[in-house]
Design brief:
The complex is a heterodimer of chains A (465) and B (219).
Chain A: H1 3-7, H2 12-28, H3 32-61, H4 72-94, H5 101-108, H6 114-143, H7 148-171, H8 173-199, H9 203-209, H10 214-238, H11 244-247, H12 251-262, H13 267-281, H14 293-306, H15 309-325, H16 331-346, H17 351-358, H18 360-366, H19 370-392, H20 400-418, E1 429-432, E2 435-438, H21 441-446, H22 449-464
Antiparallel strand pairs in A: 1-2
Chain B: H1 5-9, E1 14-23, E2 26-36, E3 41-45, H2 52-60, E4 67-72, E5 75-76, H3 82-87, E6 88-91, H4 103-113, H5 119-130, H6 145-157, E7 163-167, H7 175-190, E8 194-198, H8 202-208, E9 211-214
Parallel strand pairs in B: 3-8, 3-9, 6-7, 7-8
Antiparallel strand pairs in B: 1-2, 1-4, 4-5
Helix pairs in contact in B: 4-5
Classes of the chains: A mainly alpha (465), B alpha/beta (219).
Chain lengths: 465, 219
């Protein structure tokens, strides 16, 4: 290679145009049937988006859910902080700028400016993050019965800053550490704010501090806007500095998420995450199982929970947040949130049951004691449901009947969900605008979730009476 | 572990008669006949797509034959039959593991489930045998593909069995691992168990198999 050759860096634009040209050449020559294949779903999608946007806009115009005098501003800020903290963590885990194996092999290995190739991915990421933050901030503002505009602006600007910062984190290690610290700080601040809401310590003071005159709100918003713009530009400039190993880091998560969405099976994603965490854990000190099988079962379930400390942390955060919602949300909504949160917390506890159902080979290994393993997992589920019920029952009026219903109902819903058999592709296919789907898909969607919906409605009705 | 009296009573252990398996128009197995006696190893060989895995899956009850019969110890093979499942140890596909249990804990729990009186000691000894003693405290996600294969094979030898079914057990094993596998399968034969395995490794087949079933190429 000559010196002149070394200094030549081809632009990415022609390459991208070539790729786009190939795509349009492939799709452009399509018949009327081809157009209907993408046209019908597109029309349905547009109708769905308009259908969803209209009630949302109407909702924002109405009075919020929080009763007059409730600490709605503190609630909206606490929830927004928690959401942004979670978003920072998700962005960091997912990449956020990623490249598939094919993209890496065919395009990124070429001596083309990386920024030219990754630019569109980056802008899509920032736009999607902003849209998500917009939807969540609107909902939170409405729930807290506070003016939507400042919450919305703060949420969107902070989310854009986080997206840009996360891209910087892929290029520079110190930015990655800083992004991680910011995420943790946001989550901690959110929990503290919810703690104040739950316990009443400093609640009135904080809520009144947040009632700033309209002029003073502009200063922090302007600062956030500057930070968002700076992070966005820095993130864009960082695209040239991201190497392939970092770009491929989040690929597994995207693939797992895609497969989970296509198969309507969230466990494909959660199992991938559990595997990734286990890989990071590396080596542990093996526990002794002992000859008595019942004790070995109890021990194995305990070990599994002990090695997932984040489940306990998540449960503690959920408990604080739920009690923090109590001064703001009406009783039935609070009961519904308690049931759905409880379900989300208990499902990961039933990991053994899920694995035994999904893997007949694993079940066969333990035969005839595989039932013991299932029962131990179910017992762990029941204990987790009972613990969550014990936490929320005092906040729901201490009704013993509701507590019993919630503990058993949650266990039953989780049992139904995790023992869902794999999708049966051999059954009849139903034609839909999105392609032919097996009839068994309905079972995949409704098994467990239907029971959860009934339980949620029942809990809301009982609380309303 | 000694084979159960069931194996000693029945001769032959496994009988396959006129086994056929079709997927749509494609007939993968067309009239396979075979027997496996106690203390005997039978290898299934053939090119890719010749139906080796399908045959093993039918024997394990994980797939239903289109025609023909399979009987184990004189009883027709049905996956839901507890006696059948109790007697057959199979490693056909990649085995799944519990993400939060260490390698040693997996084996100890499995041995405890099968009534072993000293599961922890026996698990340690088996791990030593399969060359995973150093990985006893590792979680399965941290194992290499070869180590995962060794652990999967170890689960097969950690439980009571009269018949061992293995689909290409040599896959992903290094030379030392293959040597161990050969020794282990010979030991299985000596202890009176039947072994039916599919393999592409001529050395393993030659060293272990008493008889060979050769399946044809896919049409």
């Amino acid at each position: 290679m000559t010196g002149a050759g070394q200094s030549m860096i081809p632009a990415g634009e022609p390459l991208r145009r070539l790729r786009q040209g190939a795509r349009s050449a492939r799709t452009g020559r399509g018949s009327l049937m081809d157009i209907s294949a993408w046209g019908v779903p597109a029309v349905i999608l547009v109708v769905l988006v308009i259908g969803a946007a209209r009630p949302l806009v109407r909702l924002l115009g109405e009075t919020g859910w929080a009763a007059p005098g409730a600490p709605g501003r503190l609630f909206a800020v606490a929830a927004l902080l928690l959401f942004l903290g979670g978003l920072a963590q998700v962005l960091r885990s997912a990449g956020p700028v990623t490249a598939s194996s094919a993209f890496w092999f065919w395009l990124l290995s070429a001596p083309v400016r990386r920024r030219d190739l990754l630019r569109r991915r980056y802008f899509v990421l920032v736009a999607l993050t902003a849209v998500l933050a917009c939807a969540v901030a609107s909902l939170l503002a409405h729930t807290g019965s506070v003016s939507a505009l400042p919450v919305l602006a703060a949420g969107v600007l902070a989310a854009v800053a986080l997206a840009g910062g996360a891209a910087c984190g892929q290029a520079w290690q110190f930015a990655d550490h800083a992004g991680n610290a910011v995420g943790q700080g946001l989550r901690a601040a959110g929990v503290l704010a919810f703690g104040s809401l739950a316990t009443g310590v400093g609640r009135a003071e904080l809520n009144s501090v947040l009632r700033a005159p309209p002029g003073t709100t502009l200063i922090p918003l302007a600062a956030l806007a500057v930070a968002a713009a700076a992070c966005c530009v820095l993130g864009y400039r960082a695209l040239d500095r991201i190497d392939v190993s970092v770009l491929r880091r989040g690929q597994g998560l995207w693939i797992a998420g895609h497969v989970a969405a296509a198969s309507l099976d969230v466990f494909m994603l959660t199992e991938f995450l559990a595997d990734r965490r286990a890989r990071q854990t590396g080596r542990v000190r093996p526990a002794r199982m002992g000859a008595w099988f019942a004790a070995a079962l109890a021990r194995s379930e305990w070990i599994r929970l002990r090695r997932r400390p984040y489940l306990a942390v998540r449960a503690a955060v959920a408990a604080v947040a739920w009690w923090g919602c109590r001064p703001v949300l009406p009783g039935p909504a609070l009961a519904a949130v308690a049931v759905i949160t409880g379900y989300c917390l208990v499902v990961p506890v039933a990991g053994t049951l899920r694995q035994l159902t999904a893997n007949p080979a694993l079940r066969a290994q333990f035969f005839p004691r595989d039932r013991g393993l299932s029962l131990a997992s179910l017992a762990a589920c029941l204990l987790a449901s009972a613990a969550w019920t014990a936490i929320v029952t005092p906040g729901l009026g201490g009704r013993a009947g509701l507590a019993l219903l919630m503990a058993t109902g949650l266990t039953a819903a989780v049992y139904r969900t995790v023992t869902r058999p794999p999708l049966d592709y051999s059954g009849p296919l139903v034609p839909t605008p999105f392609g032919d789907y097996p009839l068994d898909l309905w079972r995949q969607i409704f098994r467990g979730t239907l029971l959860l919906a009934v339980l949620t409605a029942a809990a809301a009705v009982i609380t309303a009476r | 572990m000694k084979p159960s009296p069931l194996a000693e009573r029945a001769t032959p252990l496994l009988v396959i008669t006129g086994l056929r398996r079709s997927f749509g128009d494609a007939e993968v197995l067309s009239g396979v006949d075979a027997e496996v006696h106690p203390g005997e190893a039978v290898a299934v060989v053939g090119p890719n797509g010749s139906g080796k895995s399908t045959l093993l899956r039918c024997v394990a009850g994980a797939d239903r034959p289109s025609a023909g019969t399979i009987s184990l110890c004189g009883r027709p093979v049905r996956e839901r039959d507890p006696r059948m499942r109790r007697g057959v140890a199979a490693v056909l596909d990649d085995v799944e593991f519990f993400a939060d249990l260490a390698v040693a804990e997996h084996l100890a729990l499995l041995m405890s489930a099968h009534g072993d009186e000293a599961p922890d000691a026996h698990a340690a000894s088996l791990l030593d045998e399969v060359g995973l003693a150093g990985a006893a405290g590792q979680l399965p996600a941290g194992l290499s593909s070869g180590q995962r294969r060794r652990l999967a094979l170890a689960t097969c030898f950690a439980r009571p069995r009269v018949l061992v079914l293995l689909d290409e057990p040599e896959q992903r094993l290094d030379r030392e691992g293959r040597r161990w596998l050969t020794g282990r399968l010979l030991a299985e034969k000596r202890e009176g168990r039947g072994v039916l395995f599919a393999s592409h490794d001529r050395g393993l087949v030659k060293a272990v198999a008493d008889r060979v079933i050769e399946l044809g190429a896919a049409s």
